[in-house]
C-alpha cells in the first residue's frame, strides 16, 4: 500500500471507520461521480447486541443506532475529504446532505454500495444490501470521491451468496426474488423496494411506534452476519 493510501486509511480508522477501501470508479459516467476517478468506501458496523435484538422485530435501540451510525459516517467522510483537500487533492464527502437523489424514490445517483463493490469491500446480496466477509450485512456505508493517487482494490463483480436463500425466506415482505447480483443487473430483478418499505414501516410502527423504514431482518439472518455474531 502506498504512503497516502496507508495514512488515509489509518486516519479514517482513527475517526471511527471499521472498514476502508479504495476503488476505481471510472467505468461510471463522469456526471455520476462528479468527474472524480476514485471512490473511498467507508463502513461502520452495528454493535453485536443491537443486531441480536432484532431477530423478531426491529427495536428502538436498532433505530437509534441506525441514526447514530449515519451521523458518525457523515463526520468520518467529512474529515477524510478535508484531510485529502489539505494535501492538494480534490475530494467530495458524500454525506447525507450531498448524496444526490435519482429519479426513483428509493435510489441515489451513486449508491454507496456501488462504491463499496468497486473498492472490493463486498458484494450485493439477494436482499440488495452490501455483504462483507467480515461483518456480513451489519454495516452502514458512506463514501468519498477523490482524485488522490490511492492504491486500488480489485472490484467485486458477482455475488458470493450462491444457493443461500436465508434472506429471501425470512423477508417479512416477501420482497426478495432470490436472484443473484452481478454488475449491471437491475435492482428490481433482485427485490421489490415498495413491498420492502411498506413492510418495514409496519414492523417499526408495531414494535416501537415510529413510522420509519427500519426492519433489519435480512441483516440479522444473513449467514455472514451470523458468523460474526457468533465469533
3D architecture notes:
It is a single chain. The chain is α+β, with helices and mostly antiparallel strands. It has one domain (3-229). It contains eight helices and six strands. It has helices spanning 3-14, 48-52, 60-85, 112-118, 166-170, 193-208, 217-221, 223-229, and strands at residues 19-24, 38-45, 91-93, 123-124, 130-131, 139-146. The protein has a four-stranded antiparallel β-sheet with strand order 1-2-6-3, with helices on both faces. The protein has a two-stranded antiparallel sheet with strand order 4-5. The two termini are 28 Å apart.
Key traits:
two-stranded antiparallel ribbon; 36% helix; globular; alpha+beta; four-stranded antiparallel beta sheet; 6 strands; 231 residues
Amino acid at each position: 500500500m502506498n504512503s497516502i493510501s496507508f495514512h488515509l486509511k489509518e486516519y479514517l480508522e482513527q475517526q471511527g471507520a471499521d472498514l476502508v477501501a479504495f476503488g476505481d470508479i471510472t467505468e461510471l459516467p463522469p456526471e455520476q461521480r462528479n468527474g472524480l476517478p476514485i471512490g473511498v468506501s467507508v463502513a461502520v458496523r452495528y454493535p453485536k447486541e443491537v443486531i441480536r435484538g432484532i431477530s423478531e422485530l426491529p427495536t428502538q435501540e436498532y433505530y437509534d443506532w441506525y441514526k447514530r451510525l449515519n451521523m458518525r459516517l457523515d463526520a468520518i467522510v467529512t474529515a477524510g475529504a478535508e484531510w485529502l483537500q489539505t494535501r492538494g487533492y480534490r475530494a467530495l464527502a458524500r454525506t447525507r446532505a450531498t448524496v444526490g437523489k435519482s429519479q426513483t424514490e428509493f435510489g441515489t445517483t451513486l449508491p454507496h454500495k456501488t462504491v463499496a463493490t468497486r473498492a472490493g469491500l463486498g458484494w450485493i446480496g439477494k436482499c440488495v444490501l452490501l455483504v462483507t466477509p467480515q461483518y456480513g450485512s451489519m454495516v452502514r456505508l458512506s463514501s468519498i470521491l477523490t482524485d488522490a493517487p490511492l492504491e486500488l482494490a480489485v472490484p467485486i463483480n458477482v455475488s458470493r451468496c450462491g444457493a443461500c436463500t436465508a434472506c429471501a425466506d425470512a423477508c417479512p415482505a416477501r420482497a426478495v426474488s432470490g436472484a443473484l447480483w452481478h454488475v449491471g443487473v437491475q435492482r428490481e430483478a433482485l427485490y421489490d423496494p415498495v413491498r420492502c418499505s411498506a413492510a418495514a414501516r409496519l414492523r417499526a410502527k408495531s414494535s416501537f411506534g415510529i413510522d420509519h423504514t427500519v426492519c433489519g431482518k435480512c441483516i440479522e439472518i444473513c449467514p455472514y452476519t451470523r458468523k460474526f455474531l457468533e465469533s
